[in-house]
Amino acid sequence: MQSGGANRIVKISGFIQQQLRARKMKSVDPVTATRWLITKGLQERLGTRPGSFLRSLCRKGLVAGAEKHGSKWQIKKTSSPR
Asked: Which residue in 3, 8, 64 sits closest to 75, CA to CA?
């Protein structure tokens, strides 16, 4: 059984992948994905450092498709939903 926090992270990662498919996008930056999460009610606000919450999850390997290119994170569409 997953804890509430872990379950929330799985929902966030899955929602981002769902949005990439629905919007026919190959990837998204953490700031844009955070805006999607706010609209869906999975995140409260953008914050003073937009996208920082998602970037921290990306660093921990908790977001499906997250890759770092130079100093920038991108969340790429995966081959199968997670």
From this structure: 64
Buried b / exposed e across 36-59, counting CB within 10 Å, b at 16+?
bbeeeeebeeeeeebbebbbebbe
How many structural domains does the chain have? 1
pTM: 0.88
Q: Which helix (H) or strand (E) holds 72?
A: strand 72-76
Residue 25 lies in a domain: yes
pLDDT of residue 46: 83
Q: Does any domain span residue 82?
A: no
Q: Is the pLDDT of residue 39 over 50?
A: yes
